[in-house]
Design brief:
Elements (H helix, E strand, L loop, with lengths): L4 H9 L11 E7 L3 H10 L3 E8 L23 H10 L3 H7 L3 E3 L4 E5 L2 E2 L9 E3 L2 H13 L4 E5 L1 E8 L2 E9 L2 E6 L2 E4 L7 H7 L7 E16 L9 E5 L10 E7 L3 E9 L8 H10 L3 H7 L3 E16 L11 E3 L5 E2 L7 H16 L10 H22 L13 H14 L4 H11 L11 H14 L1
Parallel strand pairs: 1-2, 1-11, 2-7, 4-13, 11-17
Antiparallel strand pairs: 3-6, 4-5, 8-9, 9-10, 12-15, 12-16, 13-14, 14-15, 16-18
Helix pairs in contact: 2-5, 2-9, 3-9, 7-8, 9-10, 11-13
Length: 458
């Protein structure tokens, strides 16, 4: 009997690297040195004699990658993603802290909803706070230290096929063409992945594409942090769509080099915080007291803005025919509204799917259907979390799933109960951090508990 999606997600959260390498192939090639690509390379290093990562950026250069335009924005490392990184890279916490990351245990995190402080969950999992370049750089350092991983600084231009099997990647370096042969190719090219085009050019079908327009605008600024060890290292304040606020929410994290990183977001035509004056004023006037303390600190540099037009997913699992020796991963498959901070955690779970798929030594001359089925569970879970919240936004016009009116009412009750009820908040946090499947909230017991909590709060 196949496992339910809830059990699959629970099993993926428990996946650990093998105790010793168990090669099932000669060479694997990863296209893209993103976080998803690096995590895939880490998994592949246990199952391939050699792993080659192809990226336009020189991956041995430290700092922010040019290929990550949103790298200056605030990024969340959800507890679920942190647990995955700890398994892939033993000692990740200690090394991250040594490089300036700030620990964020439950007691150091505060969360507001519509100005009300949400109840804390004392036994919630730990996390870390740090900039995207720090976290991504540490992951990259760990992977590139592996003796069987090497990089090629080049632009991937296409795939090589032998009948129905992917056998390599074409690339271009300064106008000179080359080919990197492979037993398995991983597409980690992100939202702008050209895999669909390459499949079509070779006579395969394009995967169906789903989009959820969200038109998110967000701005991030850095402030000098006065305290080396602040009491609260992660603070979030969200506004529900019914508040009629032009600001969807704000957050600030303690990050490396004695800084605060603060973010502010709005939707559609609302672009809060585009200027330094507007950013600081809103932090002082529209959010809880902790935000005023950050706003009163020294602003470092300019406000950085970014626009996210839509969430999107490519459903490779629906294709009736798919080449063997090929798997897509990370944002190349699905990317979500970044407000929910799912990106790094989803990428880590995709890597767990790859580990699960490769461990028994599959036939790589056959399409990776088992991998795509596992990955679908992760994508469906993240898509459900983000789009159910996005559909409540006044400017989003669907498409609405069947039963949306009832499900949205249930969601509102559960979210409201997380403000006052520890048990509901614990379950909700497990789902949001992708440690548990969204179906774990869709039970009569959870709904009744939420209704009781909301009645008590009134």
């Amino acid at each position: 009997m196949p496992l339910s999606p809830a059990r699959v997600l629970a099993a993926l959260n428990a996946v650990r690297p093998p105790d010793q390498a168990s090669p099932v192939m000669d060479k694997a090639v990863v296209i893209g040195g993103s976080i998803a690509g690096m995590l895939a390379a880490r998994v592949l290093a246990d199952h391939a004699q050699s792993v080659v990562v192809i990226d336009r950026d020189d991956l041995h250069v430290t700092g922010q990658r040019l290929g990550v335009p949103q790298g200056t924005q605030l990024h969340a490392l959800l507890p679920g993603g942190f647990l995955q990184l700890e398994r892939l890279f033993p000692g990740f916490r200690e090394q991250a802290v040594a490089q300036g990351a700030v620990e964020a245990p439950p007691a150091a995190r505060r969360n507001y909803l519509d100005g009300r402080l949400k109840v804390g969950v004392p036994d919630d999992a730990d996390s870390l706070a740090g900039s995207r370049p720090l976290l991504e750089g540490l992951i990259r350092q760990q992977v590139l230290r592996l003796p069987n991983v090497k990089t090629v600084t080049a632009r991937a231009t296409g795939l090589v096929f032998d009948g129905a099997v992917t056998t390599g990647v074409r690339y271009d370096v300064g106008g000179a063409a080359g080919v990197e042969h492979a037993d398995l190719v991983v597409d980690a090219m992100g939202r702008s992945s050209r895999l669909s085009d390459w499949l079509a050019q070779a006579g395969w079908e394009r995967p169906p594409m789903r989009r959820m327009p969200v038109h998110l605008n967000y701005a991030t600024a850095l402030f000098r942090r006065r305290e080396a060890n602040p009491e609260h290292t992660v603070v979030l304040a969200l506004h529900s769509p019914r508040m009629s606020s032009d600001v969807a929410g704000a957050a600030f994290f303690a990050i490396e080099d004695g800084r605060w990183m603060a973010m502010m977001a709005g939707y559609a035509e609302n672009r809060p915080g585009r200027t330094a004056e507007d950013f600081v004023r809103r932090l002082r006037e529209q959010f809880p007291p902790e935000f005023r303390e950050v706003a009163d600190s020294e602003l470092l540099g300019d406000v950085q803005t970014y626009r996210h037009a839509d969430s999107r997913r490519r459903d490779f699992h629906e294709l009736p025919r798919f080449p063997a020796g090929l798997v897509p991963i990370g944002d190349a498959v699905a990317s979500f509204n970044p407000v929910y901070g799912q990106g790094i955690t989803a990428a880590a779970l995709h890597a767990a799917c790859l580990s699960w798929y490769l461990r028994p030594g599959p036939d790589l001359r056959m399409p990776a259907r088992e991998f795509l089925a596992l990955q679908r569970v992760v994508v469906d879970a993240a898509w459900s979390i983000s789009t159910s919240a996005d559909l409540a936004l006044p400017h989003v016009t669907g498409p609405y799933p069947r039963g949306y009116r009832l499900s949205s009412w249930v969601s509102r009750q559960i979210v409201a109960a997380t403000v006052t009820d520890v048990a509901i908040a614990r379950r909700f946090n497990d789902v949001v951090s992708m440690r548990a499947h969204p179906s774990s909230l869709a039970t009569p017991g959870v709904l009744l508990g939420a209704l009781r909590a909301n009645l008590r709060a009134r």
